[in-house]
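tool_call: predict_structure(chain=1)
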Amino acid sequence: MSARRRGPAPVRGYGITGWSRAFVSVVEAEADHRHITGARRYFRDRHVDGLQIGEGRVTSSVRGTQLDPFEVILVTRVVDPETVIDLLRRTGSAGDLLALARGEQPPGLGNLIAPTESADVESDCTCPDEAPRCVHVLATAFEVAAEIDRRPTTLLQVMGTDLPALLAAAGDADEDGDDRDDATRNNATGDTDDGPMLPDDFYGDRVVLPPPPPVPAVDALTELDPAVLRIALRSSGVAATQVAEAFDDLATFYTEIKRRT
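tool_result:
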C-alpha cells in the first residue's frame, strides 16, 4: 500500500490585521529590501525559536548562517494606561475596551497604543551585521506581528501593558468622575430662566484629538516576489550570472526615484 502523499505546508503570514501592520511598518522603516526579503524567508521557514513576549520587551533565538543561533532583543516605549483611558474618553472611544475584549482591533485604541515611529522599537542582536535592522530582528518582529494577528492583546503586552491594567485604569477614572460629580452637583450648569445653557466647550475648541494613524512605509521592491522578478529579468535578456547584480541596480534606481520624488 503506497504511502499517502503530504500536501505542501501552509503558507505563513503576518501583518494581516491593522494592529499587526502598524507594528511591522515601524520596524521595517529602517530596513532595506534585501534584509526584509531574507527575514521573510526566515519567518516562513520557522528560524525563530523561543519567542518570549514580556511587558515592553521581546526576546528570541534565531537560527542564521552560523552554528549557534543569534539572540535578539526588542525593547519598546511603554504606554501609560491612565493616559490611554483619558484619551479614549476625550475622543468618545471608551467602548474600544469592550471591543478589544471581544477579540476585535478597534482603530481608535490601536492609534493610541501601537508604535508610530522607528524609535519606538529599539532592537539588538548578537549577529555581526551592523545594519539598523538585521534579518534576525526583522524575523522576530514578523513573529510578533503574527501573534498580534492571532491575539490582539499581544500588542498591549508588547507596548508594556495589558487589558486588565486598562480596565483598572478605566475603573479608577469612573470613581474620580463620580467624586467630582458629587462635589459639584449643586453648582452644575443646567436650566436657567433663559432656557438651557450651552454645554461647556460647545464648539469643541478644547477637544484633544487622537494622533493621526501611521502611514506604513512601502518599498515596492520588497513587495515583489523574488522568483517572479528573477523570471522577468531572465526574460528581458539578463544572464543568469547577472541576476543578483540586476537586483542591486533596481534597488539603486528605485532609491534614486524615491529621493527625487
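agent: The chain has two domains: 18-166, 224-261. Proceeding to next step.
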